[in-house]
């Protein structure tokens, strides 16, 4: 019985250590600065203006992510009716990639 628990715990530990292949990659300060300088990443101000044009409301959260090698902003907006909208914008162009609403 102890051996089964140990194997289960070891397997779970390995899965957690590997992380999810679907998870976004972490960015560091230098990478973000280089992206801004090269034009691969728009400023937050530019992206916020584009997000507000797509969905009026109060921006409550912004994250810059890299997924599959491409940068994108994930922006949560609280609309006047109380709905929360999640927008995914291309970090280089500001174009809408995807939207979700709750």
UniProtKB/TrEMBL annotation:
Keywords: Signal
Sequence ranges assigned to domain PepSY in this UniProt record: 42-98
Signal peptide per UniProt: 1-23
Transmembrane segments: none
Protein name: PepSY domain-containing protein
Classification of source organism: Bacteria, Pseudomonadati, Pseudomonadota, Gammaproteobacteria, Chromatiales
